[in-house]
Amino acid sequence: MLAEPDRTPYDVNFRLLGFRVRIHPLFWLGTVLLGANTLNAGLEYLAIWVAVVLISITVHELGHAIAFRRFGSDSHIVLWMFGGLAVPYSRVAGRNQRILVSLAGPFAGFLLCGLVYGSNYAIGWGSIRNGAPVAWFYTALVLVNLYWGILNLLPVYPLDGGQVSRELCEGKWRNRGRGVIVSLKISIGVAIAVAVYSIICEMDYRSRDSVLDFLPWWFPRGSLYTGLLFGLLAYQSYQLLQFHSRGYYYEAPDDRVSWEK
User: Global pTM?
Assistant: First the structure.
């Protein structure tokens, strides 16, 4: 899932803060599919959703790209399908530095969330008094950057939290192969738990009698999409675990994912 997609004639290319940014056409398709339910409120809400996702993922990847540059590696950004990539041109040396690179993306989103929330608190631009679309833009921008950032920190491959988990496990176990295997087992367990929780949430939503009323209002609810996504991530982690458990890790010690190379 971390491989950079091939270029197409329909890519959108531009530069932002000195970084090359490429938007693959599948980014628009994936974003529209994620926000298809907003069409119930009107086409303008789907357009707002696309803008929110574009801004949020770009800021997330900019966080990675700036961290890469800080540690001596330039990079470019690719947005595609259901996410994005910051692709460096050289490997970042040092485990702590690589961990900071992984954390920089979610925390860039948290910073944006704080700025949006703080500006609204100061001048009230996201109030319903300025129109329902503006209020929805504000709410979506805050929630996407907050909850997607938290989700990205889960220790599941290939999310940022999964990269941090691998680095920490490799640091704990001198045998790097053992560290990767432990981190993959953690990834499988957490991904399955999130998938099961998401399915329960979807069933609860369709049921007349809720069994999740004990959860606070701010606790994120799963959906069929998150259930499918984390089910897929659990399966991918299982495949990687089988690969490393058979000893192939030692035959190919350079197991870095694309954004690390």
Answer: 0.88
